[in-house]
Automatic annotation (TrEMBL):
Membrane-spanning residues: 42-60, 90-107, 149-166, 186-204, 216-240, 246-266
Designated gene of the protein: uppP
Annotated membrane topology: Multi-pass membrane protein
E.C. designation(s): 3.6.1.27
Annotated function: Catalyzes the dephosphorylation of undecaprenyl diphosphate (UPP). Confers resistance to bacitracin.
UniProt similarity note: Belongs to the UppP family.
Name this polypeptide is given: Undecaprenyl-diphosphatase
Principal subcellular localization: membrane
Enzyme kind, highest EC tier: hydrolase
Keyword Transmembrane: yes
Amino acid sequence: MHLPVALAILLGVVQGITEFLPISSDGHLALAQLLFGGEADLATTVVLHLGTFAATLLVLRKRVAAAVREGVRGLLQPSLMRETPGGRDAFVVILASIPTALVALTLKKPVEEWSSSPTIVGVCLLLSAVAVGSTHVAPRGQELVPSPLGAVLVGFAQGAAVLPGLSRSAMTIASLLWLGVRADRAFELSFLMSLPAVFGAIVLEGRHGFDSAGGGGALLLGTLVSFGVGILALLALRRVLVGGKLAYFTVYLVPLAVATVAWGYARP
């Protein structure tokens, strides 16, 4: 499909903001489709995700490099998974990725139908608000990583975020904070955990999406915008989280959730 430049820029901005801030990119996409009709072009969605994926890699480049390096070495020398920071990060990501994949694949089919229900989207947005709101009273932990069981629980929370309106970053960050993980480490681990899931989705969906890609120049521009805006959103989120102000996002999420649920009940 032909993608206008102005629309490509707008999509890039929306992708960069909602992919990282705890307000649910899938929820906003579902609302946009319900309000304006039609469906997002698959190629456009995949390529825009490449921009935010690259933004995550750049912002967390040191942590990613250490996790990959020590994780690979840990396959031959398992003790490194406990003794090195990168190894511990890799171990947490591996443990979390297993339940994430299981839950996401199980819910994939029903989610396609639920995305067209404002009531379900609104309820999930409200759950996102509960998650971020709960961080206001979460304990100020000092742990650098969660326990193995904790990592699995966070993985389930991440998998559940396939539901439209349930923010992945809200669910994982809130879970990590409640498990006693330090705020700055909760930020890092949340987005380290996201990389395998996002990469897998790009590979799986990209096989079908790129065949229909059109408007390459505009699509590239949108991707660059999502990359740049994504970097800014990540840095802003880290500052908000470390400052203990993540709960402020409820000011946006609660009215949006209530209005969406009300719309769902009002629809014929």
